Amino acid sequence: MTKKEMIKERCRNIELSPEEIGIKNYLQKVAEERQLRHYQQVSIECCNGKYDMANDVDVEILGGILTHISEYEFGHDRPLLSVVVINKADKIPGNGFWNMCQSLEYFGKKKTLNRDKQSDFFTAILEECYDHWGKK
Question: How many folded domains does the chain comprise?
Fold first, then answer.
């Protein structure tokens, strides 16, 4: 079994918590509408403002939830759903998203992506997500 196959098998065995399932369903609707959300919007619209993106601990918690959801999707051969959640300033997902992609070997064994490559991969992954969940 290759390393990537082992990663996928680990992700296939992930169980989502009720909160994660609620956020996953919300993200699927965002993708279905071919839209994007900022991290704080996710907190407000999906979690009743539970997570404050000005608080580093809350950022880490919400980021971990989004990572867990995308790892679950990866394990079930679906696009990385958290790609629809972007950093308000940069207009692309945050560092946690890219670290997760690297740990999943989503774009091969390449260790880092520069800003231009992140933008290219973001567009490609977002289109995969929209194509999978988007309204036809």
Answer: 1
